[in-house]
Amino acid sequence: MSMNANGYPPIVNNLIRRLAKLPGLGEKSAARIAMYLLQAPREEAEGIAEAIRQMRSKVRTCARCFNFTDSELCSFCADPARDTGQICVVEGTADLMAIEQSGAFRGRYHVLQGVLAPLDAVGPGDIRIREFLKRLDEENVREVIIATNPSNEGEATAHYLAKLLKGRDIRISRIAYGVPMGGDVKYVDRVTLERAMKGRQSFD
Ligand SMILES: [Zn+2]
User: 71 CA distance to ligand 1 centroid (A)?
Assistant: First the structure.
């Protein structure tokens, strides 16, 4: 068995190199996972490889909202109980899932699959904005809630969308920013506090 500098056989090193590229993993955790997969029951390691293969071959994006799905439409678009008049616009599927878990929204979503990022050459044609406008023409939408992230790119995207929607008979809102639950006003950054102040709400 040939070895190289770090002592692992090249085949193992190949896997470590690939795993180390995954989000949140570095060389060390990659090596630990590789060692685990090498020593775990064979079915377990092969099950992971097969699950990745299946996911990549069967999962695609929803024809309407671009959420991930294994059918033509995702479960939210296919659900007749959801309010079709409301669309919540998010950057990615993980954002959708987080909002969904809050239980605060019962409409439909639109996943942009990114944000406008001029510095990285990501323009309106690179994310799902055209498809979003098409939905507004085809579906009876009365309200759009823009839930892109409070980053420079997320803000720019929200403003861009709001501008595009001007003149349509649609209510447009942006999710509120604020002090996180369990947070402490004196430790919240200046920009967030400024936004929280501007977005203040009266007691019902
Ligand atoms: Zn969908």
Answer: 10
The verdict on residue 65 lying in a domain is: no
* Within a domain: 76: no
Cα 108 to averaged position of ligand 1 atoms, centre (Å): 8
Please give the distance, rounded to the nearest whole angstrom, from the Cα atom of residue 114 to the centre of ligand 1: 16
Segments forming the whole domain that contains residue 18:
10-58
Between CA 113 and CA 67 the distance in angstroms is 9
Tokens of 42: 């064979």
User: Which segments in the chain show pLDDT lower than 50?
Assistant: 1
Do residue 54 and residue 87 come from a single domain? no
Q: How far is the CA of 135 from the centre of ligand 1 (A)?
A: 11
pTM comes to 0.81
Quote the ligand 1 centre to 100 CA distance (angstroms): 13
Give the pLDDT confidence score for residue 4 in this predicted structure. 56
Adjacent-strand bridge partners of 83: 107
pLDDT in the model for residue 177:
84
Supply the pLDDT for residue 143.
Answer: 96
- The CA 140 to ligand 1 mean position distance, Å, reads 16
> Cβ neighbours of residue 18 under 8 Å, at least 6 residues apart?
30
Q: Which two tokens stand for residue 56?
A: 């990549």
Token output for 100: 């969904």
Q: Phi and psi of 147, rounded to 5°?
A: -120, 40
